[in-house]
Write a structure and sequence with these properties.
globular, disordered N terminus, disordered C terminus
């Protein structure tokens, strides 16, 4: 079972994550926004794809924060609030790069609506598992845009968002490891096996929806699915209580990484 740390105020252990999110916020303020005035030239497939991801990043996170508050851990609630703020900033950045390309945003998209409805039916642990599906897919998606986008402004925005997402995954893994820690180990492995199956299905839906854009970035559909599923193995092991650590990500807007979560 994951052993909680204690922060300076004596609350169970998310002071480290609050500090990491706050440091990242300071980094963003110091670096400032990309140079929107240079504009962006995006193929139609990328415009449609980014519009759909922008919808997914947008939202107030009220349900997640309410569930976090009911869990009774003020440190975690504070960190979750900072996580939601980063997601909202992603929506802002994507809207801005679309505007730089002369495109608008969407009011809604069916994939986001389906995820939101599913998450709202669940408690905190299962909501985080569903949220993690979107986060792991986003890791591979933003890496594809960062490394293969034909437009440098979109590549820069994707790189900034990717640096944040690389923090989000171990943050959620830590909470899930704690949340499922009292279950017998076979039950934990059953949970993570089901989660990986859901992730694989969601990745197939994602490539059906974003395959043309991924191809413009040099990523084949089934390679995307394979990468998503394979990348989830250490995450599942972490959630199930295995001896897994996450090293700080390279790059990003500043020098702050994230805590290792052994």
């Amino acid at each position: 079972m994951f052993k909680k740390k204690r922060d300076e105020a004596g609350q169970p252990g998310y002071g480290d994550w609050v500090a990491v999110f706050e440091a990242a916020r300071e980094d963003r303020a110091a670096v400032g926004d990309p140079e929107w005035a240079r504009g962006a030239r995006l193929p139609a497939a990328l415009v449609r794809s980014v519009q759909r991801f922008q919808v997914g990043e947008d939202g107030d996170g009220a349900e997640l924060l309410a569930k976090a508050a009911r869990a009774g851990d003020p440190g975690y609630t504070a960190a979750a609030r900072l996580f939601v703020a980063e997601e909202q900033n992603h929506a802002r950045l994507l809207a801005a790069v679309l505007a730089a390309a002369g495109a608008g945003t969407l009011g809604s998209h069916w994939t986001d609506a389906a995820f939101v409805r599913l998450r709202r039916l669940l408690g905190l642990r299962l909501e985080l598992l569903v949220l993690m599906v979107a986060e792991v897919i986003a890791l591979r998606y933003y890496r594809a845009l960062r490394d293969g986008s034909p437009d440098p402004l979109l590549a820069e925005v994707a790189g900034r968002i990717l640096a944040d997402e690389e923090r989000h995954v171990p943050f959620h893994c830590r909470r899930l490891r704690e949340g499922f820690g009292r279950l017998p180990r076979p039950a934990r492995h059953l949970v993570t096996t089901a989660w990986r199956a859901l992730l694989a299905g969601a990745a197939v839906v994602a490539v059906a929806d974003h395959g043309s854009a991924l191809r413009r970035c040099g990523v084949r559909r089934w390679a995307f699915v394979r990468d998503v599923v394979s990348s989830s193995a250490p995450m599942a092991e972490m959630i199930a209580g295995g001896d897994v650590t996450f090293a700080a990500p390279a790059g990003g807007t500043g020098q702050h990484g994230y805590p290792q979560v052994a």
